[in-house]
Design brief:
103 residues; two-stranded antiparallel sheet
């Protein structure tokens, strides 16, 4: 009986962590879209004005339009992977919780 409760708790913990991972992947998706959009806008401003503007973040790092676009694409790929992985974990943990109750 104790072993059954431990397994159910483990599946519930995996479910909770996978939901958090899913929320983080959605957040990362939004940040990635922001960086891609900002990089494209910065590139357009550079083309129109003939200047080479850069973006400086709160840590003092300088980002060109190309750097921001590349970083946004990388974050977008990470968010897709994390979302797919979290969906897999959610399915795994729900299946485990439901099957464990039948045993």
């Amino acid at each position: 009986m104790k072993n059954k409760q431990t397994i159910k708790y483990l599946y519930a913990s995996i479910l909770f962590l996978s939901l958090l991972l899913g929320f983080y992947s959605v957040y990362l998706y939004g940040v990635a879209n922001h960086n891609i959009d900002l990089g494209q806008n910065l590139k357009q401003v550079n083309i129109i004005t003939g200047e080479n503007f850069i973006d400086i973040n709160s840590e003092g790092d300088e980002w060109t339009a190309t750097d921001m676009y590349i970083e946004g694409g990388s974050q977008l790929n990470k968010s897709y992977f994390l979302l797919a992985f979290s969906v897999f974990l959610i399915g795994f943990s729900l299946k485990g919780v439901m099957e464990d109750g039948d045993r």
